[in-house]
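User: Hi! Is it possible to get a structure for several chains at once, not just one? Here's what I have:
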Amino acid sequence: MQSAPRNPTVVEKLRRYLISQEGVLFLIMLVAVLFLATRTDKFLTVDNLLQQGRFMTEVGLIAIPMTYIIITGGIDLSVGSIMGLTAIVLGWSWQELGFPLELAIVTGVLSGTLAGFVNGLFIVRVGVPPLIMTLATLALFRGLAEGISQARSARGYPEWFFELGQGEVLGIPTQLWLVIVSVIIFAIVLARTQLGRALYAIGNNETGARFSGLRVNRYLLLIYSFSGFMSGLAGYIFVSRVSTTRSDMGTGIELDVIAAVVLGGTSIFGGTGSVVGTMIGVVLIQLLKNGLALSGVTSDATIVVIGSVLIFAILVNNFVQLRRDGS
Amino acid sequence: MKKVFALSLILALLVMVGMPLSADGHERWDGADDLAVNPLACGMGDEMMTDDSDDMAEEEEMEMMEYDGGQPAMMDMDMAGMDITLVDVPKLIGIGYFAATTLGQQQAAEELGNVSVTTDAPTEANIDDQIQVIDTYITQGVDGILFAANDPVAIAPVLRKALEAGIHVVGYDANSEPDAREWFVNQAEFNGIAKALVDSLADQMGADASFGIVTSTFTTPNQARWIAEMWAYASECYPDLTWLETLEAQEDAALSFQQAQTLINKYGEDMDGIFAMTSVATPNSADAVQQAGLCEDVAVVGLATPNGMKPYVNAGCVRDVILWNPVDLGYAAVYVTRAVVDGEFAPGDGSVMAGRLGELMVVNGSEVLLGPPFVFNADNINDFDF
Amino acid sequence: MNKDKAAPTPRRPLDFLGIALAVVIIGTYFLLPFVIQPERGPSTVAVLTESKKANELGIFKTGIEIVPLAALGMLLLGAWNALVPGAARAISLLLALAGLVALVYYINFFRDYAAEQADFISQMGIAFWIMLGASAVAVLQVLIPRAVPTPRYRPAKLFGNQESVILFGLLLLVIVVGLANPRYLQERNISDNLAGNAYIAVAALGMTMVIVTGNIDISVGSLVGLLAVASGRLVVAGLPAPLAWLTPLVVGAGFGALIGFLVAYMRIPSIVVTLGMLSIIKGILIIWVQGERVTDMPADYFLSQMRPLGIPMPIIIMVLLTIGVALWMRYSATGRAFYALGGNAEAARLSGLSRRRLVMTVFILNGVFVGVASVMYSTQFNIIQATPPPALELSVITASVVGGVSILGGTGTAIGSTMATLLLNFIRSAMIFINISPFWLKAVQGLLILVTVLADLLRRRRQRL
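Assistant: Yes, the chains can be modeled jointly so their relative placement is included. Here is the combined structure:
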């Protein structure tokens, strides 16, 4: 910032951006990246960063609907199990039922969507709290995956199937395009459309939103199904990346996703948050993992650092927001 | 709203109805994945330690099988005799078994003097995390990667990438697809382990014993293969053995304990033995038997590291613990990699020299066999510390 | 909303349908072996079991126990219906379920029959077909129109709270599984089940308090792992056993205080703090012990293996702590303040409760309970694994919420959470006893969690009516 911009409104604007949730987080990320880059020259290379993009695809995709859901004050713990279920349905319908692979992919992702829809249906129509519902389906969907697969894994996919998970388009990992497009679309949906505003309204005051005529149930059903769909998609991409299906795929990914979302400034109590913030959270965690490993830190120490960064980032943001609101 | 509720109840009921339909109660689980089994010849105990018959079988196989591993891209520099950096990526860190393999690797590195090994792996046995760790080390640039795969197929793409980058790749403990690595140091062949386990049980409780199994998960490749081989060997050599049930216990100490208790309580005097397939399940199954006061009636035979089993073996509750020496396994993996780098060990060779372990044979095309499985018992278990 | 007490509805023949069907089925069931194999003589359960074991009777191959069990259920329902005719609607639905369960057996039977192409179907005899018919009637009776009784019966009175729903579920599970496999009921199995899961129940007590205040703790599993190893290492290093038992409580309280400080004073949501602590503690554990198990603990260390008065120690600890927490939460000022805090933080603030102090307190208490749980865990076995118990936090949270703790705070009880822990873990071993395919175990478990939660919701809805 050597050459001070003449237009004061730009400064104002910049300042506003910088002290927003996302801005602070972005600065933290910048500091982390610069620090890591000084530790090893292997880190800040295009190849490495693209490869990390490939690895964060699944978490990134699921984090979008998770942001939506957490903004409404809900949560979805079953995403990892839906990933496993999708993978198994995909492999099983292809290998055991003899579906053409294209159809098997559609079946798999649809079954993921259906799983999300079931979550939504019970949450909306029966009134089961999201945490409890998805805790139950966390076990149920994983169980279905195990039951359907009978502990067998489906392998031996044709070459074209791996294009999505292992291929590249225009020098960028194929699945990363999907993430980029999804992020742009769904960031705009959240920030600029009626649906987005409705989600914030639900998160701030669900009863109020109902009384003001919002079709809350429909929106909720939609986002839980969306979560199922994205988890299904992530499951498909994951199978394509690792070339096999197992019923334990995606175990524990829900915590990674939630960590990224809350790190991105989405309040766990609902009402605030953004897709951009979430993505910064996803990228920050992935780069930390990678950068620390590249600079010779082993995984056991890395998880300590990531845990601390999670707490620290929210702490810093709390102070900044507190001061901003105070001044 | 009521309709939805009723509907969901009916749905739930249908699933429950479907479940018994999809399986007949006492389904035997035989390790899945439909790979061919290769049971060893029948017979008890002794040859296990003298390894004559095993070697015979292996030599036959060796002639049959061509080298089927992969090769790294050629590098300009000849690394023979130069200092090399290896990274070791076991399934996970923080458990005793892989702490032992790491120890062996460090011993080998110290002996050789021109090798340095660092161990890094995810903190949970997660296929994706393991892939990411390996990828990171490819980026970082190491001379060789040692791995123990969480999934043989899932890990293959990243290993191939390592080969393409000119990195030597050697597996141990848990294999990958053969063409994704150069060599695999096989701790003991699946059929050898299976034979040792089944022989031990039959010896302790008679050839008509009945037993349950506590394993990690049905999808864990090594455990699945052992159980499949056990089934094949038992049905050939001990047709009167009764297979009761296989239970999952993850790598969870408390769950292993409870699953063993459940087996004991469910079958009572109808069960003579428990096979425990992991180094967590074995001590905790033994604990369950010991606490139930059934050391005489239920034999626990399992795979475990000696340190975890000393309390039970010394107390006389467990007779045989079967395992290879994981310290030697890690040790051999480093020696094999060194030999590969130095060009002393190439496709087609029938054996490799591995320091204090002497000459190790090549089997199944591209696997280096550590030796026959080792049986720890009250006589020797206190001599080991890992 | 109809509160006036009308005259009891007069009994009608339909009210006794359940009993009638049950009597028919159970009667014919005992006739069955006699009909099929007259030469075997008296039709007793012993003969049945024997024939089944010897696999002589094809009919018994796939769990004929289901049929009399379902009939037993019908009998109970019928008796209930006769006593409380007002519940006719609900009971007819349940009766249909019981019928459906019985029919499962026949579906299985005919499947097997088709597979083996056996010819014994012609020899089945009238008893077999009567049983089948009665089961079908049990399903179909739901279609019979019923008079709407007044006042409307509310099961809420019977299942007034989540504890009784869970207790009922627990009893039902134990009885049904016990009938299917009597070995389930042996004393050792019940006591193993209770003792083995006591540490989860104790951790769930702490979690219940945390959730009641509207917070959550997902670092429980890691902390149990760390404290268990710490306790074991201390005692191996020569510390007297009682001190090794106490240290985890103190250290746990310390971690609780740290979490509480960050939540209460730094205003970081508890889920964020504990997500972070989950990784931090796990990392510390791995760096510290490098996977080395703890062995060679002195004989007086094994608290969980002691049996004062013949009762396993974990059961005693679990029961005492549950009662203690239940009373404390209900009658002490702080305990009641927890509910106030979770129910309506603003009101709690206005009434002069210090939110910060309460949150601090609840996390410290939780840390102590995690400490107790870790000691119960570490003294259970002769070796202590150096890894945190996998997914323990999920078991603990599930137990708390199934036990009736509202995740939004404000409601929930200690007794409910302990009983839910027991129910959830009893289900797991019960399913092994009744030979559910191991591949489907987890699915059934998930389903049963869902059903328990739904039953609770149904109860609440009825109560609101």
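The interface with chain A takes residues 1, 4-5, 8, 19, 22, 29, 32-34, 93-94, 118-124, 126-129, 131-133, 135-137, 139-141, 151, 153-154, 156-157, 217-219, 224 of chain B (CB under 8 Å). The mean pLDDT of chain B is 81.

User: Great, thank you!
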